[in-house]
């Protein structure tokens, strides 16, 4: 049985309370849902079990009616009472209740009298001065509401980080749309999306064109735009129907493009450090470009000319690398711009010569087919890998303990070898390597006898169950696994699921030390929910001389391609080069380097 998602139950109960308040239900009724939500949130017992045993109402604060609703939600995934309420209102009406000074009564009046159904609607109504005309509102309230909207937006964006894996495809789609706008010369993604950070708050696009207004008009016409939040002279912000994602577009003259792109790529920490270096040399760096504080400053200022116009000489920055060159530094790729030592390294010309790219890879590591929980046949996976120009694909199904994921028994594993042999004979230009993704069992032992493991080309060991172990037990589990000479690769090492599950508690330095001693390769897993290992650990691994495998963990033909950029990005953010990556090697060398016995 899958565990019950308590937070979803809590959210549903709170929404029930909010909708009932909007409807004007009495406080005792609505409070009951909040009390129940608190109760479930703080519950240490297994909710699924309480429901199964019909013991919900034994909890203080949960009565018959709410108990039934919780059971309904837990068992069916639906709450019909909530779904009915939602039908009565626009989909984003509850945003109104997040605005300070806006209680349910006022929200109800705004909806019923002005049709206000979202923050964006409310803002427009305030701007059109419609709100002040309502009974019980007035000018003061209108002003307060506008301030409250701004605050609510800030809170929304802080609390609503999204996975890069969800944002990147749509941001790329928007970028292509902008590139096709009238007059656009250059355009690029910016912000944390360009730095390929695992989670992002919003998306940024920077473009150059002679007439910004035309580009904004085109941008705001994209079919996925839900609302235009702000449209100014050099910036337009929209909210998309997908992911509720905010996208900011800045359009500048082409001569300002590179410095603006640099500015809006971040990170803040990288910029602060750069700006102090620039200052020492008599430059200023800002979103308006790089300026030299000129000697003519004094004379001009006497005449009362604004310092910005007269005292500073604007320096031409055609490309981002010109900006770094001005500071006698190597160009710093966006993925490294975190002030994690990249500035010092760039000053000493000691950045990695060239970070690894997808094109460097000869083989795709970590793939599942219909033999375990993949969606496509082995043959389809092999043909797709070949079509991607790869030389080999490692077949690594789940192991026997992962019964829920179709893990293979020894017999099934051996049966798969026959299919692999047959495919290797018939398919030209692609080699399937025999492997497995073995569970690391509770004590760190692998999921097959050594005699079986010894016959495999590629053995990945991953933790899939018992995430509740404490740091000692979890660390020991991994350290023990490394003692098995048949283990080659530590798979999705920390087990984190972005925005969902924290990394397992592990003493990472101790583990990486042992991996280095034992010659275990470290996986950088490109599943967009994982992007595991995190960049700081990739770097620690590389500093110990460990080798990486850049893997897709593909469960379908499509994922062979779509997961790859996230694995490559995670490796690049950890400063990896081609030489650090084992699956950049041809098949024979790859297998040879993995073997430890
Ligand atoms: Zn796995
Ligand atoms: Zn896997």
Structure description:
The chain has 597 residues and is of the alpha/beta class. It has five domains: 1-88, DNA polymerase beta, N-terminal domain-like (DNA polymerase, domain 1); 96-159, DNA polymerase, domain 1, CATH 1.10.150; 162-252, Beta Polymerase, domain 2 (2-Layer Sandwich); 260-347, DNA polymerase, thumb domain (Beta Polymerase, domain 3); 358-594, Metal-dependent hydrolases (TIM Barrel, Alpha-Beta Barrel), CATH 3.20.20.140. 44% of the residues lie in helices and 15% in strands. The strands form four sheets. It has a seven-stranded parallel beta barrel, surrounded by five helices. Strands 2-4-7-6-5 form a five-stranded mixed β-sheet, with helices on both faces. β15 (489-490), α22 and β16 (521-525) form a beta-alpha-beta unit. α1 packs across α6. The model is unreliable at 296-310 (pLDDT under 50). It binds zinc ion (ZN) (2 copies). Residues 437, 462, 464, 491-492 line the site of one zinc ion (ZN).
């Amino acid at each position: 049985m899958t565990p019950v998602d308590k937070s979803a139950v809590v959210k549903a109960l709170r929404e029930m309370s909010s909708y009932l308040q909007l409807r004007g239900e009495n406080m005792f009724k609505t409070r009951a849902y909040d009390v129940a939500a608190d109760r479930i949130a703080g519950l240490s017992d297994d909710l699924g079990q309480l429901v199964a045993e019909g013991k919900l109402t034994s909890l203080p604060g949960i009565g018959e009616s709410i108990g039934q609703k919780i059971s309904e939600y837990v068992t069916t995934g639906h709450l019909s009472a909530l779904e009915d309420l939602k039908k009565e209102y626009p989909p984003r009406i509850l945003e109104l209740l997040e605005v300070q000074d806006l209680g349910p009564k006022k929200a109800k009046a705004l909806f019923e009298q002005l049709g206000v159904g979202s923050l964006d609607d409310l803002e427009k109504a305030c701007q059109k001065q419609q709100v002040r005309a309502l009974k019980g509102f007035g000018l003061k309230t209108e002003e307060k509401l506008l301030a409250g909207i701004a605050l609510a937006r800030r809170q929304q964006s802080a609390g609503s980080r999204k996975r890069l894996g969800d944002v990147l495809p749509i941001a790329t789609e928007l970028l292509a749309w902008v590139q096709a706008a009238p007059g656009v010369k250059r355009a690029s993604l910016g912000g944390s999306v360009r730095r390929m950070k695992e989670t992002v708050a919003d998306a940024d696009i920077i473009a150059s064109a002679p007439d910004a207004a035309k580009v904004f008009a085109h941008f705001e016409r994209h079919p996925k735009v839900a609302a235009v939040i702000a449209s100014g002279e050099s910036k337009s912000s929209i909210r998309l129907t997908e992911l509720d994602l905010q996208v900011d577009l800045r359009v500048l003259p082409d001569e300002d493009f590179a410095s603006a792109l640099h500015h809006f790529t971040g990170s803040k920490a990288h910029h602060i450090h750069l700006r102090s270096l620039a200052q020492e040399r008599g430059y200023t760096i800002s979103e308006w470009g790089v300026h030299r504080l000129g000697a003519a400053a004094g004379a001009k200022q006497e005449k009362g000319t604004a310092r910005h116009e007269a005292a500073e000489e604007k320096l031409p920055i055609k490309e981002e690398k010109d900006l770094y060159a001005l500071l006698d530094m190597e160009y710093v790729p966006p993925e490294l711009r975190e002030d994690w030592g990249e500035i010092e390294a760039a000053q000493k010309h000691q950045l990695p010569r060239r970070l690894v790219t997808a094109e460097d890879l000869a083989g795709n590591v970590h793939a599942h087919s219909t033999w375990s929980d993949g969606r496509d046949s082995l043959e389809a996976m092999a043909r797709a890998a070949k079509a991607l120009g790869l030389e080999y694909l490692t077949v690594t199904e789940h192991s026997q303990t992962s019964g829920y994921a179709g893990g293979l028994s020894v017999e099934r594993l051996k049966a798969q070898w026959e299919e692999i042999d047959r495919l290797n004979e018939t398919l030209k230009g692609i080699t399937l390597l025999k492997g497995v993704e073995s569970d690391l069992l509770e004590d760190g032992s692998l999921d097959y006898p050594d005699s079986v493991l010894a016959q495999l080309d590629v053995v990945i060991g991953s933790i899939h169950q018992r995430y509740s172990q404490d740091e000692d037990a979890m660390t020991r589990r991994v350290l023990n696994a490394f003692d098995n000479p048949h283990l080659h690769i530590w798979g999705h090492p920390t087990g984190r699921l972005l925005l969902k599950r924290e990394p397992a508690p592990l003493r990472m330095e101790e583990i990486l030390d042992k991996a280095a001693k034992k010659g275990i390769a470290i996986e950088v897993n490109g599943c967009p929910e994982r992007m595991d290992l995190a960049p700081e650990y990739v770097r620690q691994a590389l500093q110990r001389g460990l080798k990486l495998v850049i893997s897709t963990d593909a469960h379908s033909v499509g994922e062979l391609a779509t997961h790859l950029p996230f694995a490559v990005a995670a490796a690049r953010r950890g400063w990896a080069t081609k030489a650090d990556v084992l699956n950049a090697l041809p098949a024979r060398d790859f297998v040879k380097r993995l073997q430890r016995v």
